[in-house]
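2024-03-11 09:14:02 DEBUG pipeline.ingest accepted 1 chain
2024-03-11 09:14:02 DEBUG pipeline.ingest length=359
2024-03-11 09:14:03 DEBUG pipeline.predict start
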Amino acid sequence: MNLPQGFLLSGIHCGIKRRKPDLGLIYSKDSCCAVGFFTTNVNPSYSVTVSKKNINNPIKAVLVNSGNANCFSHTKGLKDTEQIIGSLAKKLRVQKKNILFASTGVIGKNLPRNKIIKSFGHLLNGLETDVYKFASSILTTDTAKKISLREVGPVRILGFAKGAGMICPRMATMLGFVLTDAKVSRSFLKQIAKEVIEESFNSISVDGCTSTNDTVFILSSGKVALKKTQLNAFKRGLKEVCLELAKMIVKDGEGVTKFIELKIQGAKTSQEAKQAGLALANSVLFKCALYGEDANWGRIIAALGQAGIKVNENICIKATSLKRREIVITVDLKRGKASWNFYTSDLTPQYVKLNAEYS
């Protein structure tokens, strides 16, 4: 799988986890432009705090660690994070403001600053075009690597994601990294990315929990010219990459046995349609019914009403067989003409078991 021009990747084991890869790096040969989307959780990780401050600058590298959320661990957590970034910046001969940082894992544990810093030589020596080592280094409870690629003429769009539990992004534990070599302005990239993120990463839920660490970075090296006639195709390609990654996250959800696409139709506005999808996706009763393959649509009515969406008896609900691994449920609210697609899963005893033991 070919990387977009201008980028190199690395993924190693530095000692945060016992054996598995836990430190990754996205390296831009020349500084690239970046846009970022972050958790709305008001108790964010130190990594999110620093990256929000740096995101508007030219970016040289993105450091990613897994196995530790780098969040609410100790009073010097932010200072340690700045020191880690400063050490990497010195190695790369750039300023701290040119580095982004993302973390995922257990909240409340000290990030092993010295282990990470001592591993930078190994991390930089491992830079290459192989995508799989980096894809492995960002995982926690995931059971599979999540990678998606699209090509628009000579332009490549390559995305990575991690996430399986604590998934209800508002920009889940979710990280996303999308690389492209398209030469586009940062303002244009930010404009289309906002819409794409809403229809992909912000339209999924596994358990209704928004992480302290949710982050999506979209990076452009600007190495390949994009014609004006290709801009719409580029936007479609970006959406396809993000949506494919978002669906992978739900399908790999902790304990998941069903992947559900909710097609909300007949809403007054797109926002109402999305609100309806979110209400169903986060309804514990509805998700339990799907696990039990019980078409108890009364739980849909209740969830919509709880969200303030009043429907009449003419509401139309259709579903493919609940015995399948992948299910499509169409809900026509009969209130208007707007629609939205939302993606969720069932809720299983295995999910409870995994999270009862997660520490």
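2024-03-11 09:14:41 DEBUG pipeline.report The radius of gyration is 21 Å.
2024-03-11 09:14:41 DEBUG pipeline.predict end
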